[in-house]
Amino acid sequence: MIKKLFLPAVLLTASVMFFSSCGKDCKFEQNDYTGQYAIDEDCSNSQAQSYTITVTANGETGVKIANFWGLFGAAVEASFDCETITIARQEPDGDGYFVEGSGFIEKADGVTSLTISYTVTDETDPANIKSDECSQSLFIKL
Question: Could you tell me if residue 136 is inside a domain?
Fold first, then answer.
C-alpha cells in the first residue's frame, strides 16, 4: 500500500515545485507603484506643464492614477505586470477624451520613477480627431 502511494506523492510534490518555480520573479509589487509622483511634461499638442499624480492600489494587479495628464478629473485605471504598466484605452471623464499607453517602473539610487508613453485623443468631433502624444514622460516619486 505504501509503495502505491509513494509514486503519486512524489509526482505531486515534483509538479508543485516545478509550477511554483515557473512564476515570474518580479522586482516590483503594487506598493512600489503607489504614492505621489511629480512631472514636468511637454507633449506634442499641449503646453508644457508641471503637475503631480497620485497612484493608488486597485485590485491585485491594478492601480488608479489621479490627475493624469494634469487634466483628467477621474482617475485613469492601469494594470501592471512586474515592471511594466499598461493603460488600456479608456475615457476617464466620459467627455470624449480618451487615453491609452504603457511604460515601466524603475528604482535607482533610492529614487522610484515611472516612464510612460501615452496618447490622449480628443474625439469630441469624430470628423476631426486630435491627438496629444506624450512620449517617455518621466514621473518621479516624491
Answer: yes
Q: What residue spans of 22-126 are helical by DSSP H?
A: 30-33
Which residue range(s) make up the domain with 58? 26-141
- Rounded to two decimals, what is the model's pTM? 0.82
Mean pLDDT value of segment 21-25: 62
In the chain, at which residue ranges do the beta strands (DSSP E only) sit?
35-41, 49-57, 62-66, 76-81, 84-90, 97-108, 111-122, 130-141
Residue 1, in any domain of the structure = no
Q: How many domains is the chain partitioned into structurally?
A: 1
Residue 115's contacts (CB-CB under 8 Å, 6 or more residues apart) are 103, 104, 106, 136, 137, 138, 139
Largest CA distance in the chain: 77
Q: Could you tell me which of 131, 126, 73 has the C-alpha nearest to residue 99?
A: 131
